[in-house]
Specification:
By secondary structure, the chain is of the alpha/beta class. The chain has helices at residues 3-39, 191-201, 234-237, 245-253, 255-258, 271-282; strands at residues 46-47, 59-68, 74-78, 82-86, 91-99, 105-114, 122-127, 133-135, 140-149, 164-173, 181-182. 27% of the residues lie in helices and 25% in strands. It is globular and about 80 Å long.
């Protein structure tokens, strides 16, 4: 090989290495984020599309920690400081944000869990942290997080000592937002409006105090499915459902998709309307 060709190949190889290093540098943040999402490294939680279908008796306490970045004029806090859940149990919790500035602000939340080794088993179905969020001046919103802790946490020897998990969020201002969503979509559910919607959309089949076409719904929030005197479908009887707020949201959106073979035909397509109805049902009692 001639010295000239050898020099050319050496320079070409050097340029290829530099180009490769440039590509790795440009995508290092994205690659690292993907690595954390897959492995749970640094306490990164996992995103899933559906709720858990399996629950075991072991419980964990989940604490909530909230912060705002420098210069962000928001108040940000959990509605409840903690919750205790069984592994595999779906939980719906809320965080409250208020913009104290005189102009709209777009923010985005970073998040992690501690201990970090629990990140692989902390599954989020729904979270405001997936999006850029816009909050109008003086406005406030209650933002839902729907999650569960994977039962496989109990089978991993490395997490045998995990009985408490802290979920932390920090909101930072987004200076150049790309596609922010309005936090107004998370306006607090209104039980007064929910009562009107219940009368409008549900009362033809349901009463609070007695079964008619459908079962009595007084005190339904927190109750096991098919637990009252009513000829429920075999599918619902065997579902093992508990009517949590998250379960009711899914049920009212599409009962047939949630429990195949159920006799419930009605759907409430609008999430805010479902939330208002559930907020009303939370105020009721059996036989009310």
């Amino acid at each position: 090989m001639s010295p000239r060709r050898q020099k050319f190949l050496t320079v070409s190889a050097f340029c290829a290495v530099l180009a490769g290093m440039g590509v790795l540098t440009a995508y290092s943040v994205t690659l690292y984020r993907l690595f954390c999402q897959v492995t749970g490294a640094n306490g990164t939680t996992q995103r899933v599309a559906t709720e858990s279908t399996h629950r075991i008796a072991r419980s964990v306490r989940v604490r909530f920690d909230t912060n705002v970045g420098p210069g962000l004029p928001w108040q940000f806090e959990p509605v409840s400081p903690e919750v205790t859940v069984q592994l595999g149990q779906d939980a719906l919790v809320f965080f409250r944000a208020k913009n104290t500035a005189d102009h709209a602000i777009v923010g985005r939340a970073t998040f992690n869990v501690t201990p970090e080794k629990a990140g692989l088993y902390f599954k989020k179905v729904q979270c405001f942290c997936f999006n850029e969020e816009k909050l109008e001046p003086g406005a406030s919103a209650e933002m839902p997080v729907d999650f569960y802790v994977d039962p496989q946490l109990a089978t991993d020897p490395n997490t045998a000592d995990v009985h408490e998990i802290t979920l932390s969020y920090t909101f930072f201002e987004t200076r150049k937002p790309e596609a922010p969503l309005a936090l107004a979509r998370f306006a607090p559910p209104d039980p007064v409006l929910g009562e009107k919607l219940f009368a409008q959309d549900c009362s033809e089949c349901h009463r609070l105090d007695r079964a008619v076409v459908g079962p009595a719904l007084g005190g339904v929030v927190g109750r096991a499915a098919a637990a009252t005197a009513y000829p429920y479908s075999a599918a619902l009887k065997s579902s093992g459902l508990v009517w949590t707020e998250a379960a009711l949201q899914t049920w009212l959106a599409d009962p047939q998709a949630m429990v195949k073979g159920t006799a419930m035909p009605m759907q409430i397509p609008e999430p805010a309307a479902r939330a208002d109805i559930i907020a009303y049902l939370k105020t009721t009692h059996p036989g009310s």
